[in-house]
């Protein structure tokens, strides 16, 4: 079982690895996070509207699709920034 020290050490290692990324990797990550927020926040709001209003399957499908795409965007953003950082190494 992990204790607080191990968790703190792991978090600090992840933080330093992201702090040591190059400009291109950080830019890719920022764009991915921005796109994630632009897609995820309205889709979550749409699901909340769907829950309160009369059922509209089209709205629910649209919101679910936007959430799936936003998850893929953030995943590929992280993968892309790690790959770019490994290839160019700052």
Q: Keyphrases for this structure?
A:
single chain; 90 residues; mainly alpha; 0% strand
Describe how the helices and strands are arranged:
Blueprint: H1 4-19, H2 23-52, H3 57-88
Helix pairs in contact: 2-3
Low-confidence region ranges: none
Radius of gyration: 18 Å
- Strands, total number: 0
Number of helices: 3
Task: Kindly describe this structure.
The protein starts with a helix and ends with a helix. α2 packs antiparallel against α3. It has 90 residues and is mainly alpha-helical. The relative contact order is 0.16. It has helices spanning 4-19, 23-52, 57-88. The protein has one domain (22-88).
Give a short synopsis of this structure.
The protein is mainly α and 90 residues long. It has three helices and no strands. The mean pLDDT is 78.
């Amino acid at each position: 079982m992990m204790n607080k020290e191990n968790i703190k050490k792991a978090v600090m290692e992840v933080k330093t690895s992201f702090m040591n990324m190059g400009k291109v990797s950080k830019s890719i990550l920022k764009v991915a996070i921005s796109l994630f927020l632009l897609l995820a926040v309205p889709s979550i709001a749409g699901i909340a509207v769907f829950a309160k209003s009369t059922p509209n399957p089209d709205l629910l499908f649209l919101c679910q699709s936007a959430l799936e795409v936003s998850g893929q965007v953030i995943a590929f953003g992280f993968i892309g920034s790690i790959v770019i950082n490994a290839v160019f190494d700052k």
